[in-house]
Design a protein that fits this description.
mainly beta; Cytochrome Bc1 Complex, Chain D, domain 2; Thrombin, subunit H; Jelly Rolls; 8 helices
């Protein structure tokens, strides 16, 4: 499966003695029975390799991992498990491994997405969160009015109009059946609202229907108008006859998209998963009607006997995200999987999206659901999540406040408390970035007419919802520290190595056999972001001094302090921090193979160094190498160490160019990192 094996023949027989537990317990029990003896109780590795370190010897795709478990690698000592475990159980183990890998990476993901000084950092844009308003139950959906007011759908029934900092209750909206996940679930304006004033509401209703003597309900859609905060002129657009209502409290779907006179909307499988494959039932489908409720005569199933006439697709578990790609006109959807297997789909009429025949998930209790992830005649998702993030609202960003995000699909994640940015090219998802995490359950996301992004964040116990706006941080104001032709602003101190300027670069030649030489700034800096290119030729280490100290009464007047190592030796710890004249290594790269590999000896290397408060972050050629918290020195110079020569070393030179610094509000422009912080504040 990975480096070695899941289970050796020596422990095969004891595992088989637990055969009676197969398929009856959770996937954790399945793993502990068959895999833990080699791969560790927590998948950390042992006789077999770690399953959570993202190093895969025999392929990292679901299909490759499935094959590794099923066929094994007998020559390497790994037992083939096909015949002992059935296909469903093997599939559940693959999902379990994915889940545990995500748990193992959680600290790094959290570190990357945490704000610093209230500023959130992403690959392209930094932003702050501004609270707009809140409601006293779950905030499910929102819509922007032409007068800049915002309609807010609160799950337990109220519809609010937020204007001038105040929430105004809209009186007279339809009574909702707030049962389980049901309630007031969608609000949207007709595309021609300025002319016709129509506002559409999606909600769960109970019309007196019963299922097995229990109250039953279903998704309904109405449209109406608002005048003086009164709901008027209501018309029913879509209602399901009572014979199709269910008593389940889950999977109502309910998202709207208008296009070319049609209204597309979703209904989940309502907890009756087999109905998603039954075209005579409305459950587990995307629907298409005219925006006045009429059935289009060219709907894909309309001529099929007994088929529900509004069906557009089938096999959708619980779609809670629906939007049109403005660049292509394509309809995209997100839907909840079971345990694992949340999906992003490109929606096309008449297509079967597979639920529950195929899925990338398993049952919530960890038991297998199916081993099938694909089947002829059923569409594959464009993207899926294992483990589930509990997808909800989606929106293609169309504003101008975040230009590098224009056209990207934003996806809300509730259980994961994440906002994802999907980059789509030619109908395929090519990137998934988490831009917000840990701020609450993200229920909905929407581009505002002002170019900002708005998110609905919800909390539990007690339930309440908040509306926030993402505000971009202004572009940074960089300052050059090297003019390309002189050493103005710099001093050479301590040693006698030569420092000069040649061909637009600073050249520091290693010459002094007695002392280190430093090239340091005349100005001191506290918080800053430093970017530069450095090339070291020869067999000597060098370094970049950060918040350097030069006091005649301390350390014999020699330069000392934090120093980012540039390591030409085979050890290659470039990007770590050594405290010169102090505590020694504060952050080495021992065991950090990805960081060590980032440096290219004797070549130009690009460095980004952040020193903000007590936090240091370093990137070498775009690869994060360091995340450190230390509080010994708050301010000092920036400099370069020109190492002294020793008898066995032949010397060399250090070349420096493109030196720039951001010292004004650097916290607003910090860059996220996947590395967890190491803390040396008590050393």
């Amino acid at each position: 499966m990975k480096r070695l094996l899941l289970l050796t023949p020596l422990v095969l027989l004891p595992a088989l003695s637990a055969q009676n537990r197969i398929g009856t317990g959770s996937v954790n029990e399945l793993y502990q029975t068959y895999c833990a003896s080699c791969h560790g109780e927590n998948l950390e590795g042992g006789q077999g390799g770690s399953l959570v370190d993202d190093f895969w010897k025999h392929g990292s795709s679901d299909a490759e991992i499935t094959k590794s478990i099923a066929a094994g690698f007998p020559d390497l000592g790994m037992v083939p498990w096909k015949g002992v475990l059935d296909d469903e159980q093997i599939r559940s183990l693959v999902i379990y491994i994915r889940e545990q890998g995500q748990i193992a990476r959680a600290n790094a993901t959290t570190a990357k997405t945490q704000p610093q000084g209230g500023v959130f950092s992403t690959d392209h844009h930094n932003f702050t969160l501004e609270k707009i308003t809140q409601v006293e139950d779950i905030l499910w959906s929102m819509a922007f009015m032409p007068d800049d007011s915002i309609l807010l759908a609160q799950r337990d029934g109220p519809l609010w109009r937020h204007a001038d900092g105040v929430n105004h209750l809209v009186e007279g909206t339809p009574e909702v059946w707030q049962h389980g996940q049901g309630g007031l679930l969608e609000v949207a304006l007709h595309p021609d609202y300025a002319e016709n004033g129509w506002i559409y509401l999606g909600y769960s209703e109970n019309i007196g229907a019963k299922e097995a003597d229990k109250d039953a309900g279903m998704t309904a859609i109405v449209r109406g108008r608002i005048k003086d905060d009164q709901w008027i002129d209501q018309e029913y657009i879509f209602r399901v006859p009572g014979e199709f209502h269910t008593s389940s409290g889950v999977h109502y779907g309910t998202r709207f998209v208008f296009q070319d006179g049609y209204l597309f909307f979703s209904i989940g499988d309502r907890g009756r998963m087999q109905m998603a494959q039954d075209v005579t039932k409305p459950n587990g489908k995307i629907h298409r009607i005219f925006d006045d409720g009429r059935i289009p005569p060219d709907n894909p199933f309309v001529s099929q006997p007994d088929a529900y006439p509004s069906l557009w697709t089938l096999g959708n578990r619980n779609p809670q995200g629906l939007d049109i790609n403005p660049a292509t006109g394509e309809l995209w959807e997100t839907e909840h999987g079971p345990r694992g297997g949340d999906e992003t789909n490109l929606i096309e009429g008449g297509v079967n999206y597979g639920w529950p025949t195929i899925t990338y998930g398993m049952n919530y209790n960890g038991t297998p659901l199916t081993h099938l992830t694909e089947k002829e005649g059923m569409a594959q998702p464009k993207h899926y999540w294992n483990p589930s993030i509990a997808v909800c609202g989606i929106d293609f960003y169309e504003g101008d406040k975040f230009p590098d995000w224009n056209g990207d699909l934003f996806v809300a994640g509730m259980a994961s408390q994440e906002l994802h940015r999907l980059v789509i090219r030619d109908g395929e998802v090519v990137k998934d970035e988490i831009v917000l995490k840990g701020q609450g359950r993200v229920r909905d996301v929407l581009s505002g007419p002002d170019g900002h992004i708005y998110v609905a964040l919800n909390s539990r116990d007690p339930n309440y919802g908040e509306l926030y706006r993402l505000n971009p941080v202004p572009s940074p104001q960089w300052q050059s520290l090297f003019d390309g032709h002189s050493l103005d602003g710099w001093d050479v101190v301590d040693g006698n190595s030569t420092v000069l300027v040649d061909d637009g670069a600073i050249v520091a030649v290693h010459q002094d056999r007695e002392a280190m030489t430093y090239l340091v700034t005349e100005q001191t800096y506290a918080d800053f972001i430093l970017e530069l290119d450095v090339k070291v030729i020869g067999d000597l280490n060098s370094g970049i001094l950060l918040r350097g100290q030069h006091d005649a009464n301390i350390k014999g007047g020699k330069s000392h302090g934090y120093q980012m190592e540039i390591d030409q030796s085979e050890r290659q710890w470039t990007g770590g921090i050594y405290e010169e004249g102090g505590r020694g290594w504060l952050y080495s790269l021992e065991g950090k193979e990805t960081a060590r590999a980032a440096y290219q000896p004797s070549e130009w290397n690009h460095y980004r160094i952040e020193a903000i408060g007590e936090t240091f972050r370093i990137w070498v050629n775009g690869v994060p190498t360091l995340h450190l918290r230390d509080d010994q020195t708050a301010a000092g110079t920036i400099g370069f160490q020109i190492h002294s020569l020793t008898p066995e070393l032949s010397g060399g030179a250090m070349y420096i160019r493109n030196v720039r610094i951001l010292s004004e509000d650097p916290v607003n422009h910090h860059q996220s990192t996947t590395l967890p912080a190491e803390d040396t504040r008590e050393l």
